[in-house]
Amino acid sequence: MKPTIPSLPILAGLAPVALALFLSAGCAASRPDKVNPTAVSILAAATNIAALPAEIGKTLASLSYLVNQPAADLRPQYKSFVFNLAVVEDAGKEIVDARMELGEQGKAYFADWDAQLAQIKNEDIKARSQSRKNEVMQQLQAIKKSYAEAEVVYRPFISGLKDVQKYLSVDLTTDGVAAIQGTVTKAVADAVPLNASLTKLANDFKALGVAMSSATPAAAK
Question: Taking the complete model, does pTM exceed 0.85, yes or no?
């Protein structure tokens, strides 16, 4: 059976924490002296997503080096490419389960918000809280949409690099390397929209983290 590629692995170790802590945000509302761990995790995730294009760049650089400047011994260059590709893959495997749980965690979080809303007597305050809830929900939906958009680009990209790895594993020769120059050129071009989608995803994570944070965003210099 042909192994399947996980849907959009991005964010090693951080997204599960961010999503698992969604429920704690509601409790944070009654503890304003405590740091909202959900916001902290989401902002950390945003930082790590934003760094992923650099890891993709390292992978493509090592592959381009192998193809365009092959050494007398091709094995070290190939191992470097394989290592960098593994880093990109491993960088987000833990997000797969968390991404599937995003909807349920979100429902629980907003259900808690609704419970707090029901206890507010002042209609003006209640309306403002409802408006804020709607804003945060829209930002959560933006993250879901960004995941879907990034996945469309990611799947063929990572599949192509995995095929290159398998191909070179059985034909790591000068002629074999030369034969995939066109494939490498295409991968470099395909990385442009992928990196753009990752940047958008990182920005959406950051927007949600800021919206849920009790800390005032630093002023731009």
Answer: no
